Amino acid sequence: xxxxxxxxxxxxxxxxxxxxxxxxxxxxxxxxxxxxxxxxxxxxxxxxxxxxxxxxxxxxxxxxxxxxxxxxxxxxxxxxxxxxxxxxxxxxxxxxxxxxxxxxxxxxxxxxxxxx
Length: 116
Known about the structure:
The chain is an alpha/beta fold.
């Protein structure tokens, strides 16, 4: 009896031909709609508070290595800028309205990042 290959497995089939099922790994050629960057409200980060937002991707401390290097860079190059490292609640794509409100109320800018 002929066999059918499906998702990496071979099984018997009532058909007379060998059938192979494969997935197409090619990406869609459709380009996502571009959204303009937010308007800049200041020309310098001097005397500004910058929130460094860890998305949680890469584990509980995945982004902290990179953000700590960024904090050191700000201390050396723009010492009047204050950085605040925060962790967003939930998974990387989950909303965290309380954090966004805090950033709006207390911050001038935010850097949202992932690392591992």
